[in-house]
């Protein structure tokens, strides 16, 4: 079974936000929530670079370790998902996440807590694959269709890679060897506990 | 304004130990702490804000003002400020049971607070900033960050520093105009000030010091896990990670002084005042440590008692309920009411718990069948208007196991 990962090559990201838009469209993500966002560092200054941030589906995910109701689980593809039927919207996962991925819903009724929302790696949730119930709560399940996350598929510069961790790491190594420089695969060490050496 | 406030004499409710011991008063995780030489304020997931008497280690006031988690607290010269998941900010003064000022609910929860004599500033999960003038109670909201405001600090001259999920370190003039903006290398999770030094904890496990202009000063890698809490005072800074480790370091060079294994899950909040360091987190107990050497001050106390464990599937399913509901008679200290004696009881009738009006207007008697129905359809559909999160148990076998577990342990 593949170990699915994301890789963000900050030297290639041009801050076009296509990944953000593709995600919103594919999953009909509600207003006020972005499962993916692009952050630009040193904006307008030498060394400017952008990174596309979402849930990285960490090894030993901190969100899962702090959840008081244990609503997170890891799939056979190593994708970290959460069960919205169990989530109580406490928000502690949001504090623990190294990437600011879990989002508070902004449409819950006053006085009630909604459910946290986050990137599913386009692989739905605990409901039956590609069911209407799964789509309403979590969005499309592209993995069940044999496809990769749309954010990475849509990326015009292939700054954002998704797929088996070994394969996308090798693609990144080849790039760095060819172009002769690399500012690092942003978030890789934090998410997966290993350094991507070239 | 009808303040939904219960100021309860702690002496009646809490049998707290003598000076120097741990503080147990929250029934659930503690999210926020603030300390001053003579004050300690805490806020938690149980919706309570507690004002502690530090000299006697007793809870002087227990305030239930916020709906949901109390996410941030700060001390002021003559009182304190609390803010919560309901987006409200409340200013409290000594000796007054109602807040002297409370903002309206907001769509976004409050994620950070800072207070000084001349201004109170709140940061929200949607990135906005709200400034409140305590003299006039005038509140002004402005855009601050793209994403969660992770930390705020007010500088001696009145300027504000904020860090946010957009990986920005921003300095604002006292009038709200932008003074300077710098990029941070990683996601910030908290900000604390000691004199002219600003300490930022980050998700990559690094504690970074900055000048008020944002210039990077010494930093130190502390953990492979995200750092989530920070506090600073005088010449010392403390940081904590999601595994419950707290580091105590000397300023300005971040020389390690002590490493504390709190051993009770994530530490969500730290506060320092004088020679005392306070930590609190997932188990709801506030612990005191020496800010000189990290030594534990006082004897341990029992945390929130766990739900009865009988090795059944029902006990596993009930763990999610136990965050908000006790099974002990009359124990309404958590976010929801006690479930003791729930079967046969009309909805919203448990004495001593402030039910929402929507629930009081419903006509349901709790039985194994109606509780199963609740978790079949979820509270949004079955008890609309309830403050309860929309929990559903979709597996009929799990619902049956849950109902049987509650029946066994609620008598």
Structure description:
The complex is a heterodimer of chains A (about 200) and B (about 400). Chain A is α+β, with helices and mostly antiparallel strands and about 200 residues long. Chain A is about 25% helix and about 15% strand. Chain A has one domain (about 5-190): Alpha-Beta Plaits. Chain A has helices spanning about 20-25, 60-65, 90-95, 130-140, 150-155, 165-180, 190; strands spanning about 5-10, 35-40, 50-55, 70-75, 80, 160-165. Chain A has a two-stranded antiparallel sheet with strand order 1-6. In chain A, strands 2-3 form a two-stranded antiparallel sheet. In chain A, strands 4-5 form a two-stranded antiparallel sheet. In chain A, a hairpin with a 5-residue loop joins strand 4 and strand 5 (about 80). The longest helix of chain A is centred in the C-terminal third of the chain and has 15 residues, at about 165-180. Chain A is globular and about 50 Å long. Chain B is mainly β and about 400 residues long. Residues about 1-20 of chain B have low confidence and may be disordered. Chains A and B meet through strand 2, helix 2 and helix 3 of A and loops of B.
Helical segment tally of chain A? 7
Average pLDDT taken over every residue of chain A: 91
User: So what's the CATH class of chain A?
Assistant: Alpha Beta
The CATH homologous superfamily of the largest domain in chain B: YVTN repeat-like/Quinoprotein amine dehydrogenase
Counting helices, strands and paired strands, the structural category of chain A is alpha+beta
GO molecular function, one term (chain B): electron transfer activity
Keywords (chain B): Electron transport, Heme, Iron, Metal-binding, Repeat, Signal, Transport, WD repeat
Protein name (chain B): Cytochrome c
InterPro entries (chain B): Cyt_c-like_dom, Cyt_c-like_dom_sf, Cyt_c_1A/1B, Quinoprotein_ADH-like_sf, WD40/YVTN_repeat-like_dom_sf, WD40_rpt
